[in-house]
Amino acid sequence: MKSSPDVPVWAAGELKNMGRITAKEISMALLALLALGLWIFGGEFINATTVALLVLSLMVIARIGDWDDVLAHKQAWNVLVWFATLVTMADGLNKIGFLKWFAAGAASALGGYSIMTIVIALTIIYFVVHYMFASLTAHTTALLPVLLTAAIAVPEMPVKLISLLFCYTLGLMGIISPYATGPGPIYYGSGYISRKEFWILGLVFGMIYLAALLLVGLPYLQFYLS
Fold this sequence. Notes:
By secondary structure, the chain is mostly helical. It has two domains: 6-72, no CATH class; 86-225, no CATH class. It has eleven helices and no strands. Helix 6 runs parallel beside helix 8 and helix 7 packs antiparallel against helix 8. It starts with 5 loop residues before the first helix and ends with a helix. The mean pLDDT is 85.
């Protein structure tokens, strides 16, 4: 199908049936703009989560939606509870120094191996350790400086190469678990894929993506940077 002339006609008919825009819809649009404005410009004086709760409260107060509508989204509350818990646990691992200890131990255990072996091993470690994180941002801020510092300390280490490999894994590791990245819980919560299938498929495709990065991306980067 290369054209769909009936779609604009159908859409126009549906808009006509819906009637004129209502006060609730206008209010919802204004609240959405308020949330975006505070998220973008209000970071210095209001937390992003507080903004979301504020707008939700205003929606209930303005009767754009009632509290029963909010409670009806059980899957959203489910995601909120377990995903927030995982984020907090990952942050706790960083605060108590576990991640620095792990990174330093992994780097020291690779002493005596060839440079390329160390590069590949550290890339795999950086990728696999994401199972401990519920956020790509948290993973990057907590672990990237530590592992990169340990790698730089190795004599003759190709710093630009391993830095790029670490950064490229961030675009791949978001599928390895239901909590690996922000959109992950939404995909998992949709219910199309069971818990067992999600973990298995995450492992399988994670291995495929990591293998592609090391077997194709690594030689390409070596050639490009040489």
